[in-house]
Amino acid sequence: MKVRLFDSLTRSLRDLETAEPGVVRMYACGPTVYLPAHIGNFRANVCWDVVRRTLELLGWRVRKVMNITDVGHLTRDDTADGGEDKMEVTARKEGVDPLAVAQRYIDRFHADRRALRILDAEAYPRATEHVPGMIALIERLVARGHAYVVGGNVYFEVATFPAYGRLSGNSVDALVAGARVEPHPDKRHPADFALWKTDPSHLQQWDSPWGRGFPGWHIECSVMSVELLGTETLDLHTGGEDHLFPHHECEIAQSEGGRGVPFSRFWLHNRFMNVEGRRMGKSLGNYWTLDDLVAKGFDPVAVRYLLLSVQYRQPMNFTLEGVAGAKASVDRIRGAVRNLVEDPGAPPLAPAEAGEFDALEEGFRAALAEDFNTSAALGKVFDAVRKVNARGPFDPAGAARVRALFGTFDRVLDVLREDAPRAGGAPDSAIDALVAERQEARRARDFARADALRKRLDDLGVVLEDTPRGPRWTRR
Ligand code: AMP
Ligand code: ZN
Question: Which ligand places an atom closest to the C-alpha of 250?
């Protein structure tokens, strides 16, 4: 099946075409490991996981690489002085080595990522392990006249790369006029950006032809993507909307200026996760981590569902009610599969009914193939949920068909599998069953039984809340 995606560079929906038929070489800009990643960062990561899983569902082989930024990402990257290296800020504050800071947040990133069921990338290269490649590319940029050296610092000269600004819809002149870049005494043009900074006081430093120092943030992606994916032209490069400018604009200028071939065939950017209308961000202090939500009793799978429920190109607002709603949706999907009754005496699927299930499966694939439209795909999932719940028992072949259908859905969603119960706790499925039983008792107006079940749930440490959309439970 063809996949169409919105390519940010051409601002158009285009059919995915790759260098090697059937194989997608995909690079995603990863976390800067100086603080825990928040739910906004994981929105980006879950979106790219959906991209990868969709492509795999549709028969592509995906080679995905994500970098880890452990040096060089400055606190005010788009200003003239750039601020400080984010890694150093945490390291100095805590009086520990930047590598120790990096290791702590790399471990945490992977733990959260696994809890959110984001599949492993093929590699997670670290910037500090690829500095020689960065120096080599910078040398090439200097040799080709795209970069210049001033006092041990190396800058990319944007005027030598006329396409600079194409991705973000800026022109070099407009960037200056719009004051998105400030003048700097060393730079030939205010929009020129640093490739190498000589700084003997930096906590992480390397020898270079220009002095001991460290690489700029952007150069790492131009180098690690190509080194790890083994091609100078990637098929698909993803990032958050904040990366359009300056990060990806700079990646393109460095890669194409240095190598003379297009850097990526397709560019995909996810919109932000907002909180009350503002971007969720580390610097804004308005962020939630996965741990924060787990401490409130939420299941990471509910968080995964929430993050994938809105198509990547739509803005999304974070609320705790949203997570609770996501949990209810996951429970409904799980409930449809779990409560499916298999009975050899049940009537087989009529041809029309079988056709409806086929159409839902096809619709699910088609929705995702059209720019990863997860909300439309979930519409098909809930159509299937309603059908299954409404039907009553299935014969064995019919039950197998329905399970296979949900198996297809779950190759992308990955919400059916339950996590192992936490120590001492009842498994989610047992609690779901008790909650469902209590609902049943209430429907039958057997209030004594409903109360007894509520008491049992309470004894299991479950907080049950009846809402207009049905019961919700969390662990105390
Ligand atoms: P950072 O560690 O801040 O460089 O961000 C890592 C990734 O998360 C980048 O791809 C950002 O674009 C993305 N990101 C940061 N904040 C948000 C947000 N509020 N919503 C969605 N993605 C975000
Ligand atoms: Zn990058």
Answer: 2
Q: Domain tally for the chain?
A: 3
Instruction: Name which of 353, 411, 413, 360 is nearest 385 in CA terms.
Output: 360
- Give the ligand with the smallest distance to the CA of 237: 2
Residues 265 and 358 in one domain: no
Count of beta carbons in the 10 Å neighbourhood of residue 234: 24
Give the residue, by CA position, lying nearest to ligand 1 atom 11. 240
Paired tokens of 341: 């009754």
Predicted structure pTM score:
0.88
Q: What are phi and psi of 104, to 5 degrees?
A: -60, -45
State the DSSP H helix or E strand holding residue 463, giving kind and residue range, or none if neither.
Answer: strand 462-467
**Could you give the CA distance from residue 158 to residue 327 in angstroms, rounded to a whole number?**
48
Q: Which residues pair with 321 in a beta bridge?
A: none
Residue type, 316: M
What's the pLDDT score for residue 121?
A: 98
Q: Which two tokens stand for residue 181?
A: 């870049």
Domain hosting 309: range is 282-413
Shared-domain flag, residues 176 and 247: yes
Provide the residue count of the chain.
Answer: 476
Residue of 101, 242, 251, 314 best suited for mutating to test ligand 1, as the one with most atoms within 8 Å of CB: 242
C-alpha distance from residue 340 to each of 133, 327, 391, 468 (Å): 56, 20, 9, 25
Ligand 2 center to residue 216 CA distance, Å? 11
First to last CA, the chain: 46
Q: How far is the CA of 45 from the centre of ligand 1 (A)?
A: 9
CA–centroid distance, 188 to ligand 1, in Å, is: 31
**pLDDT for position 462:** 84
Low-confidence ranges of the chain (pLDDT < 70): 77-80, 176-181, 421-425, 468-469
Place of tokens 């997860």: 374
